[in-house]
């Protein structure tokens, strides 16, 4: 029975990892940069959900889309103000400097943590539950009502995002820009707009992930640091820029940590992902679904 | 010429007198290292800050230390050792403080005392529980707060009184957490018989403790001892409750970290903490000396909040610095202050404080008789004053007062 418990916990955690990592993967796919402030989008979403529900007294079911909206807007603003210099015309793409993205996103991360710390305060806030059932028992498995609902919602959001990217007009444009920015631009695709959509979407996904977990992981200003590190590992394991790869890597990591925490060592649970990362970098550096090289 | 020489001498003498007067009126600078931002415990840092400020106001309102006011200089350590080291370095070299107080996290204290020791500046460790802090044997370090060995003895005695056979501790991966978990094991082995004990280390930064909790569902222990600071402690309590592991009729929770008086406690735990036993260094029903009552009243007037243990520990830390300077005939020289602190016998906010001179082990410069109590949370959103006091200071645990989960 423990096996079933661990499997379900691993799947649930994996789904939350996926929700977080997809945004990071999309950003890398289209901009070829790592957003070091991704965890802080998660944190902002967690606070937007928790504080809007607790302070304004609105239903958690309304706070959830509010957190999503805050994340979408934050992503959009960050893209327009900070990321746009990276690709203000495809001719500048070739001279884009990774240093700029690293410094800007790192600075943004520190800024957001400190601004929340000073404005909201350093104390932890447990987010309200989406449903007030402290424990649902299905056979030998016990899970809180909120955790179950949050996991189901996360799955639904992932499916919707995957469908949008695969079948919609803008989704296909994002795919095109991800495959070849210059080619997409020559084909008439507004690459700047595609980048803005991706950054905004990534912000929204991270924020809604934080909101869904606010009841479980009691947000503090630095709550996003740890999930962000997991997301970086997942994005590399899945293949840089690959959304399906990120989803599968998230599930694998969630389940591995759950079982490894019991059967290997709980103390070293957080090193499992890093260990696999090292193995991948040595033997399959392109990750699960990544390309070996890009040639134009 | 003689007239001119006399005039010059008179001016020089006047200037010397003025300088001396100014020197006498200079404030006494005391450095306070606390966590004011994550990942350190900002809840604790804020309580220590308030305690030091209340004590400083009491001293200054009474005319200061022989006419010299106390000036507090705060530095944020974030609970991180390297930042604590830098903070102490800055306070000593740039701010020229006469002593350091305030540290409330063991890992940060262990880093800070190295710098204080190097510069030979008195360091009053307000709340670093790790025994290693005293075991270093540094003459500059004094400990008016509780210490892991005392907590471990309290936990072992409580487990014995409860009749527990199977005890599991969850500790955070810090010097404090792992150190206390190990000491509880030694004290249980030394002071009790037939109790099986083990501990599991949890990462403070990680938030998913279920892989450590799920195996307990098949074979739950009699007592789970929680040795984490918030927010990890809150998350652990919630996840234990979510899985139905504790609190239950079979399994009690014992909080060895004293988290129930934190300002964000009820915002984060809900019914997960009901019937939890708490190791406490302060409870409103404890008898306090006059100074303790004064500090408690001033704190409530300042913050509109109920007093807490760290308030008293921080206040005592600053009062001790002031008392040491007075006892050293107003000298702020490190050797004079250290000598005065070693000889001190002073009634603080929690009782009469003296420091052990036994040089071996954790007892060195430690106040050994720090009072403690055990109380029990019996309702959601319960103020500390209404929590059930099940062990008075210096008395054994009163089992008849304990409420069991049904």
- Can you count the beta strands of chain B? 14
Helix content of chain B: 40-55%
Largest sheet of chain B: 7 strands, mixed
Gross morphology of chain A? globular
Structural class of chain A: mainly alpha
CA-CA gap between termini of chain A: 52 Å
Q: CATH architecture of the largest domain in chain B, please? A: 3-Layer(aba) Sandwich
Topology:
The complex is a heterodimer of chains A (296) and B (406).
Chain A: H1 2-31, H2 38-56, H3 60-83, H4 98-119, E1 136-138, E2 141-143, H5 145-167, H6 169-179, H7 181-186, H8 191-217, H9 225-238, H10 243-263, H11 272-283
Antiparallel strand pairs in A: 1-2
Chain B: H1 2-25, E1 28-34, H2 42-61, E2 70-76, H3 81-93, E3 99-101, H4 106-119, E4 123-124, H5 132-135, E5 141-142, H6 148-162, E6 166-172, H7 175-191, E7 196-202, H8 210-213, E8 223-227, H9 232-242, E9 252-255, H10 265-269, E10 277-280, H11 290-303, H12 309-327, H13 334-343, E11 346-347, E12 352-353, E13 373-376, E14 388-391
Parallel strand pairs in B: 1-2, 1-3, 4-5, 6-7, 6-8, 8-9, 9-10
Antiparallel strand pairs in B: 10-13, 11-12, 13-14
Helix pairs in contact in B: 2-11, 2-12, 3-4, 6-7, 12-13
